Amino acid sequence: MPTYDYDLFVIGAGSGGVRAARLAALEGKRVAVAEEFRVGGTCVIRGCIPKKLMVYASDFAHEFKVAESYGWSLGEPSFDWLTFVERKNVEIARLSGLYVANLTKAGADLIHGRAVIRDAHTIEIPEKNLTVTTDQILIATGGRPRKPDNLPGVEHAITSEEAFHLPELPRRILIAGGGYIAVEFAGIFAGLGVETTLIYRGPNILRGFDDDVRAHLTEQIQRRGIKVILGCEHEAIEKTPTGLLNKLKTGMEIETDVVMFATGRVPHIVGLGLENAGVDLTEGGAIKVDAYSRTTTENIWAVGDVTDRVNLTPVAIREAVAFVETAFRGNPSRVDYTDIPTAVFSQPPVGVVGLTEHEARKIGGKIDIYMTRFRPMKGAFAAIEERTLMKLVVRAEDGVVVGCHIVGPDAGEMIQLAGIAVKAGLTKAQWDATCAVHPTAAEELVTLRDPYVEPPMPVAG
Q1: Cα dist. 365→213, 330, 449 in Å?
Q2: Residues whose CB falls within 8 Å of the CB of residue 405, separated by 6 or more in sequence, listed in order
Q3: Average pLDDT of 452-457?
Q4: C-alpha Rg value of the chain to the nearest Å
Q5: Does 405 participate in catalysis according to the annotation?
Q6: In 75, 172, 402, 433, which residue has its Cα 20 to 30 A from 336's Cα atom?
């Protein structure tokens, strides 16, 4: 029987990789983790955490306006970008350090360097002049932002990764994209006082979300001062003495100081050596895995964004736990990808779980919709015109709530709890039987009594 240096070698120390390594090490396995950048991965270093800190920072401008209507006298507030960046970097370093400490306490070896697969049981870290052997390999290298390679002038543009480290806050920014990242950063920069334009080639932002959510959020972010241009994309970017000239395919030209692309992410597999071990890819360039996260090579596994299944940090962590159960505990486990609660930290934020109205109707059978739009109590006092949207999608035959969609303050917090009810398959009657907490926005979720009826179409002439 072959003897290896390690029982498990993990490539990538993000949320999924670290969780798998810790659990395997705590099982008494000999574990090593290689990370080419910083421990913590996309979420901690260049994704969820720093982005949420930026959302907090930018939302204060809105809160200051609300505070004045409640009698607070604040003077003229000002924001120092470099102070924020410095404090944000300190917090990220602290969190990265916690990940390192948790790995080492569990007994895993941490190797700082880029790992390359030489064969199914051999890993090389060239910069360390190190070669090791391992029984099992887990790939958890995540994804990286994508920019259009064939766009003239694209070298002048940045992605979300560079947005965290801008040397100064721009006066004007154009963000290309309509997904999570684009919408979130548009809110961030607008909140910080940057003249913000969002362009997207599709008919509306947040493709894949419920159509009412998409339309409602578009309207709300425009209220926050974001200029949204749909059905539009770049023709070229030209550097000028005064900034960057965005030449759009519609013929429009917009000059800004920064251009940011948030047009998707791709699995980070370049130079990984997958071909040396016979690991196949999907047509989209992700690592091909089965329901248990096993690749086409029996002892090599992959979790997280590198597989391009559901690209969310909590999902990568669940995949990591299922991998350890399958590979080391004799308990084959697979992740259930249905009814995953999701939040978009736009301004206002979005929280969704379950089916959209379109998805529910495609399945077939009668669907009832319960929907409300209202001005939150806090905003009403301040004469703010923003509206909250809440929508429930209910399967009429048995009354089960199959989808819940919220746009408004604290949507991310509410959807975590609503997700439990949707995942459990509770009925609308059971939601209604739950006593409301008053006065809250969330009480609307259990007080929606009558199905929503679309208003009649206007008659021409």
Answers
A1: 22, 41, 21
A2: 209, 210, 212, 213, 350, 351, 352, 356, 389, 390, 391, 392, 393
A3: 70
A4: 24
A5: no
A6: 433
